Structure formats: structure tokens, C-alpha cells
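Posting this for the archive.
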Amino acid sequence: MNDVSLIKELGLNEVSRRTHIEAEHLGYIADKNFEKLVRLNVKGFIKILERELDIDFEQWLSEYEAFMSERNQKNEHKSISVSPKISAYTADGGHSNTGVKLLILALIIAVAGVIYVLNEGDYFSNVLNIFEDKNKSVTYTGAVAVQQAAKSLNEAKQESKNATSDENLYAIKNLEPILPTEENASVVVAMPEVNLNANTDKNETTQTNKEESVTQNQEQNTSSDASKEIKQASDDKIWHLSANTKEIKIVPRKKTWLGVINLDENKKRSLDTANSFTIEIGKKQLAVTGHGNINLEIDGQTIKFGDDRPKRFLIEKDKVSLLTYDEFVALNKGKSW
């Protein structure tokens, strides 16, 4: 069984990728920051870490349980229960008396309203009589009114005709001839401008299309070159060893965690180092690094890796193979380390 310190040795990000637990929560577990873990599913996290990394959490859990027990005792001393007295629930009968009084007052107001309406009945009848009055107080002499209305209408029509005739005559006298030469001149001047603008827009559109075509060709060439480089880098996954090769070296370009598993003897060893590490040939072994900024030296040949992802290798008598995570776990009997 491994110790809790393995979480930091492998790196929080690497363990988070394997277990899908946030790196921040893994840091709390590694540092035993129990206060931050109170509201989290700690026991669920522990089960995942025990299964994936084969870590013994027995002592860690005993310390966590002691912390939670002490914390619960403090909270019990701080809790205070208060039973407030609510006047609404007291049986004094005051509210029922108030309801009866309001009901009696409402009945009195309703009765008074009915009496008032009955006494004022004459007033409403007088108002209705005003609307039903059929102009009894007004008398017209029909013949005289009709004659006066007809005379006024004829005078209005005659004045309208005279005004229309005067306006038409004035418009004819003051009518100015339309000069077509000015319109034609403006048309002649405007037409070349339209053609010039159209030609300019066409030229600009053509130039823009050419530039876009050149840009697209450059992008296609760049993507084609990039794909060739990626293919070339991914082809080299197995390096064959000569018969005289006795060892290989893993040279980290910055400090890293390094682990080696002897599959024949089922033994493990690990260390943090910034120096070159030598692995002897002759036994079937697995090697894993904390990051990918390393060089692999085989028979005087240097293979350079340049990313932050961990690198895993299978080292045999005649070759060294670069493994994926799933291949590494399969060879290590289902364990990531």
C-alpha cells in the first residue's frame, strides 16, 4: 500500500485526470485540511483514491473522524433553543369580540344605505325625465328654417366655385415653362459617376477575392505541413536495441517524479530527480515520468519529448516501446502505478 504523499509525487493534475476529482480537493486531502473538507463527499473521494492509486487511508481517516467528533461537540455547546411567546396563539377571546363588532357595523351601514336610496327615489325619477323630454320647450317654424338653410347652402357653393376659378386663372398666368435642358444636363453629369463607382467596386471586389484566395492557399499549405510533422512524430513509438546495449537513460529537462516497475519480480521504486536516471536492460520493466519534458538516450541516440503529459515506456531485452495509459494499466495488472 502506498502513502498519501503519493498524491503530491504524481502531481495533483495527473491524479485529477485519473480519478476525475478536482485538483483543489486533492490538495485538501494531501494537506489534511479537514476544515475545507467538511462539506465535501470525503469518503467517496477516499474510496476512489484507494482503488486507483492503492493508497492506505486508515490513519488519515482516523484523524479525520477525530476532527469531526471534536467539531460536533463544539457545535452542540453553541446551540441555543428559544421558545418565543406568540400573542396570536393565546386564548384571550379579544379577536373574536372584534370580529363581531365589525360585522354589526357593516350591517348598520348596509341598512342606512338602503334607506337613503329609497328616500332619494324622486331625485332619480327627475333625472330620467330630463333625458325623456322630447324638446317640448323649443318651437321652430319649419318653413322659415328650411328656406334660410337652403339660401345659406347656395351662397356657400357659389363662393366656392368663384374661388376655384380665380385660383386656376392665377396658376395659368404664372405658369413657368419647364426647362428640360437642366434635367438632361444633370443626368449626363450623374451617369459617368455611377459607372465609375461601379467599376471601382468591381476592382475592389476582384482584389479582395484574390487576397482571400492567396490566404486560403497559405493556410492549406501550413495545415498540410503541420499534419506531416505530427505523422512523423507519431510514427516513432518503438526503438530497437542493439545486442551490445546494456542500459538506457531517462534525462529530465526539469525536476520530475520517476517510477520504475520490475514486472518479473513485481517490485517498484520511485524518486524525484532532475538528473539522468539509468535503467538496466535484461529485465522486463515499466517506466513512467511525471511530465513529458524529458530526453530518452538509447545507443547514443537522443529522443526528445516536448509536452507536459506523463510518458510511459515498456523496456524489454531488444526494444523500448512508448505506451498509452490504457496499455500501461493493462501490463501493470489494472493499476495506474
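DSSP finds ten helices and ten strands in the chain. The CA atoms of residues 38 and 68 lie 8 Å apart.
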